Amino acid sequence: MATLASLKPGESAFVTLLAEGSYTCKLLNLGILPKTKVTMVRKSPFGGSFYIKLERHQLAMRIDEAKTIYIDKVI
Amino acid sequence: MSKTGSFNIALLGNPNSGKSSLFNFLTGMRQDVSNFPGVTVDKKKGSFTLKNGKEASIIDFPGTYSVYPNSTEEKLVINVLTDQNNRNRPDLVVYVADITQLERHLLFATQIIDMGFPMLFVLNMIDLVEKTGSTINVSVLEEYLHVPVICVSVRNHQNLDELKLKINELSENTLTPDEKPLYELTDIESFVASRVKKHLDTENMYVAKITAHHYKWLKFLKDSQRAYISDIIIRSGFNDLKIQVQETMQRYDSYSDVVKKTILSQSKSSKTVTDTIDEWITHRFFGLVFFFLIMLFVFQSIYAWAAYPMDWIESGFAASGAWMSEILPDVWWADLIINGLLAGLGGVLVFVPQIAILFFLVSILEESGYMSRVVFMFDSIMQKFGMNGRSMVALISSGACAIPAIMSTRTISNPKERLITILVSPLVSCSARLPVYAVLIGFAVPDIKVFGFLNLQGLAFMGLYLLGIVGALGSSLFFKKILKSDSGSFLMIELPDYKPPIWKNVLISVKEKVFAFVYGAGKIIIFISVVLWFLASFGPGDALKNAELKANEVSMADHLSEEEKNNLIAAYKIEASYIGHMGKWIEPAIDPLGFDWKIGIALLTSFAAREVFVGTMATIYSIGSDNDEKTIRQKMAAEVRPGTDIKMYTPATSMALLVFYVFAMQCMSTLAIVKRETNTWKWPIVQFLFMSAMAYVGAFVVYQLMG
Question: What is the model's pLDDT at position B627?
């Protein structure tokens, strides 16, 4: 299954599942849940982290963190 | 009523909900900032006069996302909420939510309600929603939560009087929500919760469940209680992560309709102002350009502009010292007041301009939302050194002064990343090293041009700064390896919408930091200042008296002028004092670095502050401490090693001394603030030792290679 880390800048998708682990709790608290729409906006200047847009707010996360978020078809 | 007897109001809410702005509005300047016991988490407490004349205490708790914490700050909040005997336990929760983020901000609110706390739910930033033409239907939300809901805009002072009325009303008549909980516990949760509830005598099932969930780190639990809970959890197969996911999803599901009915939005926003700004501000290239422009401005402000008020403070203290030495008799206690206490107080207050200016700028960057972007952009680089994106700002500010830089690390939530930033920041060359570099560089490097246009001394200057940066980054790698961390490292951070800063918040933050420094670190600085004064003003037995007599004899024989005589007396006196003896005593240890006892004395006195080196050298060479660097340089240039005609300040010795000052922790004020910020003497001592070791080894290598 594809993860959020595989999205290219400008692409959006829906979250299907969060891999259970040490990041899950934080992701849930930040509003990333199954069925949430996520958009990859850009990568950080030196790489390593992503600028993610949700319905009403923005988040930054590392590649490792984005890899725990499974997504459904790119829209 | 709470354990403390007063009515306790807790301000709770997610980060960026405007909670602190509301706190500043409700309490004004009547705030008291301290640490929560055992942790370096700011406890902001204020008071608020109720209509019945009673004082209510308000605590502005750290921003929290849910009862499942990820940081020290959040854990603290959960500790207070689950502990029924906690002295900060609220009688009323004023919950602040950003209406534009209602869905997310409801999560924690529903959990607090299920814990059984009476609540006033404050929907903040309604101006932002009204602007878009949406309508807000509060009654839907009230019906769902079963607590009073009020709409306000703290920024525009909208509806705040009604908010105060509501708090008054609720303080007289707090309704404990004993309705059906918003989240129904599953069978396994009920099984665990009911047993924990019975064992601990917990009032509420949900609190019992959360206690079971966090039993490993909740502070109020006894070991026997922990063992009991652990046993129940193992027997029941209570999987904490699965249960958390399940609970969170169900809560979101249960109120997603409520949110839609509460805010009847007209248009689905497409591209926001924040999106447009971030296209530039977090751009791969322009984002970096913008950051360095801002940092240039910050640096300029604390390096150059702060110099004016610092000069006023210094000359003010010098003038009052001179005035006092005229009106006070020539006795030891007058000298203690002038050269011990007054000098120490001056040494504290001189930092106030830099602290005030840096925090004025830093809190604008925080308030506006820009700081989170800095974290996003520099996370990957700083991560390699065990630090946080925010550490960039601290390290750059250290180029002016490490003290405000270290104070600015409070917002780094990972304890290890924060500690590393605190430990290595003083290695970046600060402005106080400049006078030392300026005096010594002429002896170490000839004043010639290379490649026709580059001044070699200028290059050496740059080299010293680079050496400091390399030292800072190198030791951060070392600490990254050896320090343990109990919390995992993650970035996952909200990038809040850009907002103009609320000036009241900015000014309160400046005031808070200045007071924290003056009261928190000031005591230590004045104490060390007095100790140094004592060591320099007294000597064993009649040593000082004899030194003065001898200086008098010499000046008579040499027909010295009155001024020359006084300078000579000062020089003989410092040599005869305790600190002079200490300088001689450490000479064998610093001899391999090419230093003599005179440098030894200057090393000891400049522990007060690096620039004191220059003044002490002036005193030792009996040229009066108000002389300029040029005179001191001439005197030092003429100095030879005793009994020989070998120059004392050879390039090797001078370079070794320069390298020593790049690394050495010659600043009691920094140590004092590290003590305050880490809440223990352990880290300032570790810092002093490792920086001294670096200085010693660095100077040794340089002297042995060049000598």
Answer: 58
Angle ∠(B357,B31,B70) on CA atoms, nearest 5:
80
Is the per-residue pLDDT at B47 higher than 60?
A: yes
CB distance from A45 to chain B under 8 Å? yes
Write out the two tokens for B238: 């209570």
Average pLDDT over residues B614-635: 74
| Chain-chain contact of A23 with B282 (C-beta, under 8 angstroms) | no
Mean pLDDT value across chain B: 90
Question: Could you tell me if B355 and B501 are in contact, meaning their C-beta atoms sit under 8 angstroms apart?
Answer: no
Measured CA to CA, the distance from residue B153 to residue B3 in angstroms comes to 33
Task: Please give the CATH superfamily to which domain B7-172 belongs.
Answer: P-loop containing nucleotide triphosphate hydrolases (3.40.50.300)
B241-258 residues labelled b (16+ CB within 10 A) or e (exposed)? eebbbebbeebbeebeeb
User: In which domain, by residue range, is A19 found?
Assistant: 4-71
Residue B1 confidence class, pLDDT cut points 50, 70, 90: very low
Question: In whole angstroms, how far apart are CA B472 and each of B66, B81, B311?
Answer: 37, 40, 29
| Type of residue numbered B461 | F
**What amino acid is encoded at B551 in this protein?**
A
> Under an 8 A CB cutoff, do A29 and B70 touch?
yes
Q: What is the pLDDT of residue B74?
A: 92
* pLDDT tens digits, one per residue of B470-526: 999 999 999 999 998 877 788 999 999 999 999 999 999 999 889 989 988 888 889
Q: B392 is written with which tokens?
A: 């960039």
Q: With a cut of 0.95, is the ipTM above it? A: yes
Query: Which whole number is the average pLDDT over B238-244?
Result: 85
In the chain, the amino acid numbered B637 is A
Query: φ and ψ at B489, to 5 degrees?
Result: -95, 130
User: Would the CB atoms of A61 and B492 count as touching at under 8 Å?
Assistant: yes
pLDDT at residue B178, rounded to an integer: 60
The beta-carbon neighbor of B488 closest among A22, A31, A45 is: A22
The answer to whether the Cα torsion of B485, B486, B490, B496 is positive or negative is negative
A61 touching B (Cβ < 8 Å): yes
Q: Which residues of B touch A43 (CB under 8 A)?
A: 284
Domain boundaries defined on chain B: 7-172, 187-264, 271-320+333-428
Count: domains in chain A: 1
Cβ neighbours of B256 in A, within 8 Å? none
Residues in chain A: 75
Q: Output the six-digit token pair for B703.
A: 């002297």
CATH of the domain at A33: 2.30.30.90
